[in-house]
């Protein structure tokens, strides 16, 4: 579906080297974080098992909602260990191992927050998401205009915000496991606030 060069990156060194140093910082501002949290409150089922894909030291999940289980999958163990919203975590580089180490239909919902631009094998990852999500489960891919440009894939760097949303929607569609996605602009008001966009789709119901 995509030419291989779409997923080329400026920095071709091992991701483990780049992410070895913990970064206890947020990558969007407080207004955008609040918008993401509001979005998660709207879509994620209370009491459910939630997958936080490409997780870090904060998940931005609503603190007033109780989830039965929150599993983080990320690159840096120190960051994941600091994330108080996770009940468990797994360290994995999805660009070398896109298979998710979870059972079929294990999760009731999931999020991928401001990191989709770093996936070099997104179609494989989204196909795996379709496998590990339960029927009807929502998965939210949230992004802004912020990135590490040397690690973002070429196609992401070449597109604007609207193009990013269409690109992410195509990942869901190509997987064959999701209902038609919603493309949302949840950017906070205010000229200086970081923009926030999301593509949301539900795992296709099994009949």
Describe this structure in words.
The protein is an alpha/beta fold and 207 residues long. 27% of the residues lie in helices and 18% in strands. It is built from 6 helices and 7 strands, in the order ααββαββαβααββ. The protein has helices spanning 15-18, 30-43, 77-82, 122-132, 154-158, 161-175, and strands spanning 49-55, 69-74, 88-91, 109-113, 138-143, 182-185, 197-202. It has a 7-stranded mixed sheet with strand order 3-2-1-4-5-7-6, sandwiched between helices.
List the helices and strands and how they pair.
Blueprint: H1 15-18, H2 30-43, E1 49-55, E2 69-74, H3 77-82, E3 88-91, E4 109-113, H4 122-132, E5 138-143, H5 154-158, H6 161-175, E6 182-185, E7 197-202
Parallel strand pairs: 1-2, 1-4, 2-3, 4-5
Antiparallel strand pairs: 5-7, 6-7
Helix pairs in contact: 4-6
Name of the top-level CATH class: Alpha Beta
Q: Into which percent range does the helicity of residues fall? A: 25-40%
Outline:
globular
Total domains, how many?
Answer: 1
Within the CATH hierarchy, at the fold level, what is the topology?
Rossmann fold
How much is the radius of gyration in Å?
16 Å
Poorly predicted spans = none
Tell me the distance between the termini: 28 Å
* Estimated structural class: alpha/beta
CATH superfamily heading:
Vaccinia Virus protein VP39
**Mean of all residue-level pLDDT scores:** 92
For the report, how would you describe the main beta sheet?
A: 7 strands, mixed
Oligomer: single chain
